[in-house]
Design brief:
Layout lengths: L25 H33 L1 E2 L2 E3 L3 E5 L3 E4 L2 E3 L4 H4 L1 E8 L6 E7 H7 L5 E4 L9 E4 L17 E5 L3 E6 L3 E9 L6 E9 L4 H31 L82
Helix pairs in contact: 1-4
Length: 320
């Protein structure tokens, strides 16, 4: 007598293939952290690039990147800059500088000049004058120097100036920078005291456009790299495990229904599924549908027993 087939019980989901781990690993966490830091760095680089280009396009005046105007007043003979130290700075880096000033006394010519600090200090040694330490703070950054003489020799008569301009109205002085120690001077052209000016500074900075474009490109490159470092680990961490080739998952299309007897495996198929053709007997409640590509042959129906001979008909009651 043949034993009844054992009912098939689902063994649970098959194990992952082992080709790629899922979940958060130390390497993926580190990748996301580094990517986040690089993203912040890229935002800073992009901001610098944008600011450089905006300044280059909106703050230039005749090719110079200019400051706002500031007013300075002195009761002395001259208004000077602080000592300007320039060493190993090429003209390709800063280009030319611009000093633009307008005297409040339009009737007196204004003199603007740049000279060596030592010679400027000697020229103004005996007269009162004022020094500007911070151009952006106006008169709050002015230091007054006393003097014993109320009038200086007219500056246009001196020959130590490396750049100079004078006249009434607004005066603009441009100078191609040189290595050394320099001082800028504004004063009445005739050397008399009392002066009030509205001044503006400018510098060429010919490289500003290239720097802005360079920071934008570098920022975009870093941002793309940061995106890869963040997105790829996240996608790998949250994805579902893959099913090995030849394995099956309960409830998947073509998988055996619950309660079926365990079929004999097809030869050479890992995991025991799909079964050999005809391995599952069909039932009215859950007919078996073979997977795509599998043979559709079903087992032959069991042989039927021969019908017993019919009993002879009863006699009709007539006697032959």
């Amino acid at each position: 007598m043949t034993a009844a087939p054992q009912p098939w019980v689902s063994p649970g989901p098959p194990p992952p293939t082992g080709r790629a781990r899922t979940g958060w690993t130390a390497g993926r966490i580190v990748s996301v952290v580094i990517g986040s830091i690089l993203a912040l760095v890229s935002f800073g680089m992009l901001a610098i690039g944008v600011l450089a280009l905006v300044a280059d396009q909106t703050q230039r005046d005749n090719g110079y990147l200019t400051s706002g105007r500031a007013q300075f007043t002195t009761a002395g003979v001259a208004i000077t800059s602080d000592n300007i130290e320039l060493y190993d700075v090429g003209t390709d880096l800063l280009g030319k500088i611009l000093i633009r000033a307008t005297s409040n006394d339009s009737g007196r010519p204004l003199f603007l000049g740049i000279g060596p600090t030592s010679q400027v200090n000697a020229y103004l040694a005996n007269v009162p004058y004022s020094t500007v330490n911070d151009f952006s703070n106006g008169n709050s950054a002015v230091i007054n120097h006393p003097g014993t003489v109320n009038r200086a020799q007219p500056p246009i008569a001196l020959n130590f100036w490396v750049a100079q301009v004078s006249g009434t109205g607004t005066q603009s002085l441009t100078w191609e920078i040189q290595n050394g120690s320099w001082t800028a001077v504004a004063m009445n052209a005739n050397g008399t005291p009392a002066l009030t000016i509205n001044a503006q500074l400018g510098v060429e900075l010919p490289w500003l456009t290239g720097v802005g474009i360079g920071f934008l490109i570098a920022g975009l490159v870093v941002l793309v790299g940061a995106a890869f470092l963040i997105i790829i680990p996240i996608r790998r961490a949250v994805r579902r495990p893959q099913v090995a080739a030849g394995a099956w998952a309960p409830g998947a299309p073509g998988a055996p229904p619950q309660g079926y007897p365990m079929p004999p495996p097809a030869p050479g198929v890992a995991g025991g599924y799909p079964p050999a053709p005809g391995g599952y007997p069909p039932t009215p409640e859950s007919p078996y549908t073979p997977p795509a590509g599998a043979a559709s042959a079903q087992p032959a129906p069991p042989p039927t027993s021969p019908k017993p001979p019919e009993p002879p008909a009863p006699p009709s009651g007539k006697t032959l």
